[in-house]
Recover the amino acids of this structure.
C-alpha cells in the first residue's frame, strides 16, 4: 500500500463531516487494500465494555447499530480484549473464540482477518474485520497492511467519535431542557389545580366556619364550638394537601435527613417492600442541592427497576466522595439484562438516569449481563462538600 493511498485515507477520515462518513471511508479502504468481500468496523460503546457495529460494507451495512459484542466475546471481542490480530483461514465455527451474531447471519464467509483499532494516544477504539467468500490465507504482509490502516485511523476515529458524542450530548441536553420545561408547565398546572380545587377551597370553607363561629360566640356558644372544630379539621386537611404538593416538587427527606439519610431511608423502605437484603455503605456528607436531588432520584429509579425486574436477593447501595467527585453505586445479584439492547430501547429508565447524571456534569455507567450476572449502576459527578 503506497504512502499516497494512506495519506488519502487519513484525509478522508480526518476531513469527514460525521463519524458515519469517517467509518465508511475506513471499511471501504480495508476492503480494497485486502481484496476482501466485506469489511466490518466495531467501536467501543459508551460503556467501554462492549463493541457495537459502527460501519460495514454491503451486505451488512443494514446491520450497523444492531450487532453488539461484550469485550472478550467472539473473535472481534477477543481481538479487542487482547489487542492482537486473529486470522481464521477456514472452519471458523470450530474456533473456540467464534460466536455467531444474529444480526450478521445469512451470508457464509470462509476466511477472515481481524485487527485492533488502537494506538498509544487514542487507546483501544475498536476492531476492524475483513471477510472473504473463498478460502484466503491472509499472509503476514496483508495483515500488516490492515494493522497499519487500523493504527493510522485510530486517533481520527476517536476524535470523530468524541465529536459525535458531544453532538449527542448537546441534543440530549436540548431534549432534556424541552422535557423539563414541559414538565415544569405540567407541574405548575397540576399545582394550580391542586391549590384551586383543594387548598383554596379549604381556606374558603375555613373562613366561612370561622366567621360563623364569631357570629355565634355570644348567642350560641355550643354551635360556635362546632364551627370551630370543623374549621380545625379543614385546617388540618389543608396542611396535609399543602405538604403533598411540596413533596411532589422535592423529596422532603433530603431536607430532613440529607442525602445519606435519604438514601438510607429509601433503601430500607425498598428492603421491607421487596423482602430482600440491602447492604448500605454511605459516606455522611452534604453536597449542593442539585447534586443531591440528582443522585437521590437516580438511586430511586435504579432501586425501583431492581424491584420490578432483577429478581435479586441481595443488593448494595454505596456513596463515596473524594477529589471533588461524588460516586453513587446501586448493584444487585439479580438476573441482569442486555445493556446495549436496553440503551437502544430506552428500557429500565437508563436514559432518564443518564440525563439526570449529565445535567449535573456527571456520567452514568451500567454493567450487567443476562442470565444471573447481576447489575451495577454507577454515577460519578463533580461536587463540593458542604460544611
Amino acid at each position: 500500500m503506497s504512502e499516497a493511498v494512506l495519506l488519502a485515507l487519513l484525509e478522508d477520515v480526518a476531513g469527514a463531516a460525521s463519524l458515519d462518513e469517517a467509518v465508511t471511508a475506513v471499511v471501504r479502504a480495508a476492503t480494497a487494500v485486502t481484496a476482501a468481500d466485506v469489511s466490518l468496523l466495531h467501536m467501543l460503546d459508551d460503556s467501554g465494555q462492549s463493541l457495537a457495529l459502527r460501519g460495514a460494507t454491503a451486505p451488512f451495512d443494514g446491520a450497523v447499530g444492531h450487532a453488539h459484542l461484550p469485550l472478550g466475546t467472539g473473535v472481534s471481542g477477543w481481538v479487542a480484549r487482547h489487542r492482537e490480530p486473529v486470522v481464521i483461514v477456514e472452519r471458523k465455527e470450530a474456533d473456540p473464540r467464534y460466536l455467531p451474531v444474529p444480526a450478521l447471519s445469512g451470508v457464509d464467509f470462509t476466511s477472515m482477518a481481524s485487527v485492533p483499532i488502537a494506538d498509544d494516544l487514542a487507546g483501544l477504539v475498536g476492531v476492524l474485520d475483513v471477510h472473504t467468500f473463498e478460502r484466503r490465507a491472509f499472509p503476514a504482509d496483508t495483515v500488516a497492511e490492515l494493522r497499519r490502516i487500523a493504527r493510522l485511523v485510530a486517533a481520527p476515529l476517536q476524535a470523530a467519535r468524541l465529536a459525535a458524542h458531544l453532538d449527542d450530548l448537546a441534543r440530549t441536553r436540548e431534549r432534556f431542557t424541552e422535557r423539563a420545561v414541559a414538565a415544569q408547565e405540567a407541574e405548575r398546572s397540576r399545582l394550580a389545580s391542586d391549590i384551586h380545587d383543594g387548598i383554596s377551597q379549604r381556606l374558603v370553607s375555613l373562613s366561612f366556619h370561622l366567621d360563623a363561629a364569631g357570629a355565634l360566640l355570644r348567642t350560641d356558644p355550643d354551635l360556635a364550638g362546632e364551627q370551630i372544630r370543623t374549621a380545625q379539621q379543614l385546617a388540618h386537611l389543608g396542611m396535609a394537601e399543602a405538604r403533598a404538593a411540596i413533596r411532589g416538587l422535592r423529596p422532603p427527606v433530603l431536607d430532613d435527613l440529607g442525602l445519606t439519610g435519604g438514601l438510607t431511608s429509601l433503601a430500607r423502605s425498598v428492603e421491607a417492600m421487596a423482602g430482600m437484603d440491602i447492604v448500605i455503605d454511605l459516606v455522611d456528607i452534604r453536597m449542593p442541592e442539585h447534586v443531591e436531588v440528582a443522585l437521590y432520584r437516580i438511586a430511586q429509579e435504579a432501586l425501583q427497576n431492581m424491584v420490578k425486574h432483577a429478581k435479586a436477593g441481595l443488593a448494595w447501595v454505596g456513596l463515596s466522595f473524594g477529589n471533588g467527585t461524588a460516586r453513587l453505586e446501586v448493584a444487585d445479584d439479580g438476573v441482569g439484562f442486555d445493556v446495549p439492547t436496553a440503551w437502544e430501547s430506552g428500557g429500565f429508565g437508563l436514559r432518564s438516569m443518564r440525563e439526570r447524571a449529565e445535567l449535573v456534569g456527571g456520567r452514568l455507567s451500567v454493567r450487567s449481563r443476562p442470565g444471573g450476572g447481576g447489575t451495577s449502576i454507577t454515577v460519578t459527578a463533580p461536587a463540593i462538600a458542604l460544611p
Remarks:
- Residues 252-382 form a domain with the Heat Shock Protein 90 fold (CATH 3.30.565.10).
